[in-house]
Amino acid sequence: xxxxxxxxxxxxxxxxxxxxxxxxxxxxxxxxxxxxxxxxxxxxxxxxxxxxxxxxxxxxxxxxxxxxxxxxxxxxxxxxxxxxxxxxxxxxxxxxxxxxxxxxxxxxxxxxxxxxxxxxxxxxxxxxxxxxxxxxxxxxxxxxxxxxxxxxxxxxxxxxxxxxxxxxxxxxxxxxxxxxxxxxxxxxxxxxxxxxxxxxxxxxxxxxxxxxxxxxxxxxxxxxxxxxxxxxxxxxxxxxxxxxxxxxxxxxxxxxxxxxxxxxxxxxxxxxxxxxxxxxxxxxxxxxxxxxxxxxxxxxxxxxxxxxxxxxxxxxxxxxxxxxxxxxxxxxxxxxxxxxxxxxxxxxxxxxxxxxxxxxxxxxxxxxxxxxxxxxxxxxxxxxxxxxxxxxxxxxxxxxxxxxxxxxxxxxxxxxxxxxxxxxxxxxxxxxxxxxxxxxxxxxxxxxxxxxxxxxxxxxxxxxxxxxxxxxxxxxxxxxxxxxxxxxxxxxxxxxxxxxxxxxxxxxxxxxxxxxxxxxxxxxxxxxxxxxxxxxxxxxxxxxxxxxxxxxxxxxxxxxxxxxxxxxxxxxxxxxxxxxxxxxxxxxxxxxxxxxxxxxxxxxxxxxxxxxxxxxxxxxxxxxxxxxxxxxxxxxxxxxxxxxxxxxxxxxxxxxxxxxxxxxxxxxxxxxxxxxxxxxxxxxxxxxxxxxxxxxxxxxxxxxxxxxxxxxxxxxxxxxxxxxxxxxxxxxxxxx
Length: 736
Prior knowledge:
The protein is of the alpha+beta class. The chain folds into six domains: 9-208, Hypothetical protein af1432 (Orthogonal Bundle); 216-363, Beta Polymerase, domain 2 (2-Layer Sandwich), CATH 3.30.460; 403-471, Beta-grasp domain (Ubiquitin-like (UB roll)), CATH 3.10.20; 490-565, no CATH class; 590-651, no CATH class; 659-733, ACT domain (Alpha-Beta Plaits, 2-Layer Sandwich), CATH 3.30.70. It is built from 27 helices and 20 strands. The strands form five sheets. Strands 1, 2, 3, 4, 5 and 6 form a six-stranded mixed β-sheet that branches. The protein has a five-stranded mixed β-sheet with strand order 12-16-14-15-13. It has a four-stranded antiparallel β-sheet with strand order 18-19-17-20, with helices on one face. Helix 2 runs parallel beside helix 4, helix 7 crosses helix 8 and helix 9 (168-188) runs antiparallel to helix 10 (192-206).
């Protein structure tokens, strides 16, 4: 008997249960004949060893069925997507061809599978997605919104499957990619439930201690939380029933990732965060009565509890671009605790739960129905124009994903949408790039405003232009939309290119006048010596008179004479000695990669790791290794762009010398507090003070204190002691 394991015993049981449920859920969109044909194809593929486990030891068969289940339960039933997911690997393994698929299931299924194959081929070429493949990958996503949704569902399936995977690097790489690419995509498509689970699992795999701590605390406080929700809901439920509305009301705990985010923003721990949950009121009313009913419930709740007007979010009047509609209010509930209440209709709730996919039920599968066409076109424009690495691409790409929106008008009454914080200049480029390049300001609501003016919802804006105006470098600091940023960069490059051509002609003309021959190789060395990154930069400096052309020629001639007269010292490899700067102590404090010891490394200054931190190594272009904390601000970028240069690292049993750590302390502006803090540091046995910098504003001081500590436990002990100082509001370790 062949020793081949397609499914483990646990996977087999889950597979059969999932298959039965999938049949039940999809019977309205997939006919009995199609279902039997798919079943026969999969069975035949198993018998012919097509469904062996992948290179990471994961079952392809199990992954396919679970991805289909996620689509069915979390997104919505769509025939072509389900069939594509179930048959994709059969086409990839060349068991089926596109002619077979088209004859049996139609061109739409063929189209989706083609794009899935393309994205998979980009992943398989390299462990880390490089810049060009990354661009192609996202462009493929943007071609068909259903491909995006399938990839998101598949990524969630993968994240669920790797919880106990033995390869830690594989697990963290998948988690980082989920957080910087797939979670934002899920958010943009309104797939909030999937987005939350992706973020939670990503935190779990990259910072398991924090995840476990929050999860444990939520479990411990569940009873008191449920009791509070019940106390809040009871009287609200009775009041809404008196009005005569049909509804459901429930409480839900916020995701672990969102709680962690709130802890970071508020610089506090979980005990001091009160809005760990939200109350949701879901109304069963006809479409034409939805808004009126929502505002009626709003009146009922705000009559009972004091609302916070600053936290009112009205997505009833103008829905989000992904179709999200809801009314969010925050009220002061029992025990003086702020409670968020979400009010929406049953239809709105389905769109909130399933995002874009819910529109298939109401309006069909056209992406334009949910306002996605403009966004996808913008994605294509960003990707076509970008010439930077993948993380810079994502910076541009993600720019508009999470931002709140403002709505403004042209003098003719046309309505335009911009992210919050957008300026007059952003608006000009949104209308037309030519208008943006010539923009000198605007008349906003009849008043003259500069290009820096941040637009507000309801503004009527008339762009003012001047023929002589051209884009400036500092415009990149004014705009906040990706379209404006890209157009400005393109214009600046074009202007620089024109100027550099003039500079080149100027240099050639002056050299000819002085009867000096141009040596291209010598000129390149001269340009490099002057510190210019490119020839274009050098010519541009000549054209803009930042560098005098006659001085440049004199220096060029001098360099040529010097090179001719100098004799190059010959060196042998025998005499070559590397003198690394700030190399760590020779003790085996760190074990790098696969139990390698005595490896020279440096501790990265961007995050200052200390003994006991979770760390990893990063191989530089010179071959040296720098040690970073796993929560280093640069970690995600390094893993995304250069995953193949990341190596494992861990602290060994031996403890080294002292390490630098920086603390950020905020407190009341009192010299006595600072004295008390320095006194605590000086009394510490394993701690010594290096530097202290204090700034004072509006009665508060903010200080960065650099200390030397032996390990993480000594640092945590110091932080606890400083927190006890009267007047100190917060103490946290700086990541930079």
